[in-house]
Amino acid sequence: MLVAAFGLGAVVGTMSLILISIGMLTRSFAEVLEEIDMGQVEAVRAAGGSYFQVLSQAVVPQFLPGFIGWSLYNFEINVRASTIVGMVGGGGLGFILQSKLKLFQYQEASMAVLLVLVIVLIVEMITNRVRERII
Hints:
MetI-like fold, 135 residues, mainly alpha, 6 helices, 87% helix
């Protein structure tokens, strides 16, 4: 639908990744909120906590690890998916890879594949370190 409305390009690729991410993260965050231990919420309420105190002392500490974990996971997925989106007309490194493959320029195509691999590994290392420190 986006390609029909706006044509091929990096903007459409970015918009498609954003739409998919919004849907996935909304569902994931809803699941994390459903898994919150209501005992902590009731304990803060029983101690006379206000609405904002309940949120800051009982809800947010339970929600934050899931929020960070799912957000980082979605970021990793988007980094990988951006190459595929680029190969089908979304621009970027995927577009370069696809054009080099069509022109039988395998040296340049293999370099693009190596760059994608390095980018994915770097993003994986960074998100793992963030997870270790925050969660």
